[in-house]
Amino acid sequence: MRPAEPVQSGAAPPATFDLHAEFASSGVAEVIETLDRELVGLAPVKQRIREIGALLVVERARKALGLASAPPTLHMSFTGNPGTGKTTVAMRMAEILHRLGYVRKGHLVTVTRDDLVGQYIGHTAPKTREVLKQAMGGVLFIDEAYYLYRPENERDYGQEAIEILLQVMENNRDDLVVILAGYADRMDTFFASNPGFRSRIAHHVDFPDYDDIELVTIADRLLAEQNYAFDEEARALMERYVALRRAQPHFANARSIRNGLDRARLRQAVRLFGGADGTVSAAELGTIRAPDIAQSRVFTQSSPDGEAAR
Question: pTM to 2 decimals?
């Protein structure tokens, strides 16, 4: 951990430290505001990020005022279903850590088991160390981390990657923050089987699913980013789409909504090409209408196979 304002040798530390001013001047408040704009809902997640930010500012104050203490453990676990914003929050967390001086670079390296574990003897250690080298000075985000541990396969090399990760998480915690992510129940099993990880994780953040209103709001935002908008009838139909899609298998929150909108844009393009003379206005190009939503198989197939109903 790097102090905000190192006290020069022989100099007395300042008498006070303005926490609010430091929070604002460091840019942490700005990052959290960006997160608020980027992600709909997730109030408990955003509150936890604010709390972690407050902890880090207090640690800077302690250093500045000459109060010795061990650097906080900052490795984290993000649990929740797909499409709930875990990667986006990890990216902003890396930015916060960098602005407060807890990591040198503030970049995010996202990996899965395949990036860490080799298929043959001698391949895993070099792969894992190369990933760790790339992540040093920033945050390493390991998605679906529980796949590292496969006790049913005697020839699996995931345990080698785990041992290297645990060593680096302990010895380099002043230059690397590791975030493990995945489904809550599977992460619980993973931690039970690998107590070394649990003992190194200080912050467990659970990401709730979005509700129907939040998902429709996400749809509005995703369209707006691409200069599209629903007309009134299409938006009402999108509300029905969300309610039906959430009840179907393999629903992935914002990710499924994004996929559904991509297909609505495809159907809009086909509809526009089918016009009488092919002439379109900017308003037409930017409007998603009811037929673009209504043709989805979500309305005709109540139990699709995977993502079949789209």
Answer: 0.85
